[in-house]
Amino acid sequence: MSSVAVAGPAKDALDALSPAQVDFIKRLSKAELHAHLNGSIPLHVLRSLALEYSEKVPESNNTSVSSSAIESGIQALQAGVNLDTIHSFFDLFPAIYALTSTPETVARTARAVLEDFLDGPEPQCAYLELRSTPRAVASSGMTRLAYVETVLDEVERYPPERAALIVSLDRRMSDADAEECVAVAKKLKAEGRRVVGVDLCGSPLAGDMAMFKKHFETAREAGLGITLHIAETPDNTREDTLELLSFKPNRLGHATFLDDETIHAVVQADTCIELCLSSNILCKTVTSLDAHHIRHYLKHDHRIAICTDDALPFRTNLVAEYALLLAPRPLGLGLSELEVARIAEMGMGGRFEA
Ligand code: 6MZ
């Protein structure tokens, strides 16, 4: 079971449930389809990496992230995010990345995240599709290929019905970097490794989406599933959303600010929507659970998957996200056990094929 100390809206919902209801959620067969590796590292693992880092990197070494910047980053994560807007969320990652910049630390963190979701007497979920952005780090000699191979070595310690990997492309990437990430995903899939899809993530207003289209086409032709963060903020333009929909995604992340026409297109295409309730509330892209777009999809019995996004900063886990469905209003959505079981089933149905 998760080592994250749950806080915020997810904790309030969990606390509103009876032990039998929490048990019901734990026993459901659930899939976690939208979890970012570097946003899901258990705090105690990050702390021990920070300690090792501070012993290696003297405060005067101004080519690296300073130990004090890392310490304040970890303290912010421990406190749980309290953002004015989603845009400041991405400032959390340089401190984390400084700690996961070698194949050895990537392996350790990937293993810890997989264990957190999948191991122990009460695993959070039956199946985890972990996602991560391949990083090349000059100082450690780690290439993007080595990064993905390292994460895959950990993923493949589990059987295929329990874990797989999605390779993320960041909206800030150059054409050449995006091409390299897709080439790595394609090559490893062809070698029989467990890469099942590609994702587009990162700061929601960055980049020119038209540039990415050909890379997602290459990925689709290679048999990889496609999931895209889309319309995550009110400032995402309609052109941006239409461009992304033209990539013919199998799944979409967040899809918070679709208009009537684009919602219609998504429903027609039967595209599964990955929904991250705590993430959206804490990033203030939705004002309350009551106002969350999940209501629209439930009304239309449209395919959704309930996910954590970044368990560490959002202080949540998958059981707590399901508690937000079951808890009585206003702490939760007040759904019945039957409805929650159906949502879990939809999540399992959204898995990419290996
Ligand atoms: C968009 C997000 C995200 O890939 O290094 N990431 N991108 N929206 C979000 N919702 C709040 N949460 C995380 O994991 C960290 C990276 O995932 C993306 C960001 O690009 C972040 O740098 P990996 O393992």
Automatic annotation (TrEMBL):
Which residues are the signal sequence here? none
Q: Could you tell me one molecular function GO term of this UniProt entry?
A: adenosine deaminase activity
Q: Which superkingdom does the taxonomy of this entry point to?
A: Eukaryota
What reaction gets catalysed by this protein?
A: N(6)-methyl-AMP + H2O + H(+) = IMP + methylamine
Residues covered by the Adenosine deaminase domain: 30-348
The cofactors named for this UniProt entry are: Zn(2+)
Q: Which residues cross the membrane?
A: none
Q: Which UniProt keywords apply?
A: Hydrolase, Metal-binding, Nucleotide metabolism, Zinc
Q: What is an annotated GO biological process for this record, any one?
A: nucleotide metabolic process
Supply the Pfam families for this chain.
Answer: A_deaminase (PF00962)
Recorded hits in InterPro entries, A to Z, give:
A_deaminase_dom, Ado/ade_deaminase, Metal_Hydrolase
State the similarity comment.
Answer: Belongs to the metallo-dependent hydrolases superfamily. Adenosine and AMP deaminases family.
Q: What is this protein called?
A: Metallo-dependent hydrolase
